[in-house]
Design brief:
The protein is mostly helical. Helix content is about 75%, strand content about 0%. The two termini are about 30 Å apart.
């Protein structure tokens, strides 16, 4: 999903590396500003369309899904190995 050409990654990484985000509110602010910048850049003939707005939301949702799949899932799997799986017996009994 976030796999863009390395030249694009380098250009964006240079800009993003300058930003320090220390709290959730700041992260939400940055995400919203990026969505608005995307919409402004995608406007065709000075008209904002539903498709552009939908793409801005879809990109944020896709990024959330990818972060969960690539990071949180692995963190949770590590914690299950470390602390045990509280769902193991339930899953076995429910034949899932």
């Amino acid at each position: 999903m976030p796999y863009i050409k390395q030249s694009q990654q380098a250009r964006l990484k240079t800009l993003l590396d300058k930003i320090f985000i220390g709290e959730k509110g700041e992260l939400c602010y940055c995400i919203n500003v990026l969505q608005m910048k995307f919409c402004e850049g995608a406007v065709i003939d000075n008209k904002l369309s539903y498709q552009i707005l939908s793409d801005a939301v879809a990109a944020a949702n896709d990024a959330n899904s990818e972060f969960y799949r690539r990071v949180i899932f692995k963190y949770e799997a590590h914690k299950i190995r470390e602390n045990g799986d509280i769902f193991h017996d339930f899953i076995r009994k429910a034949n899932i």
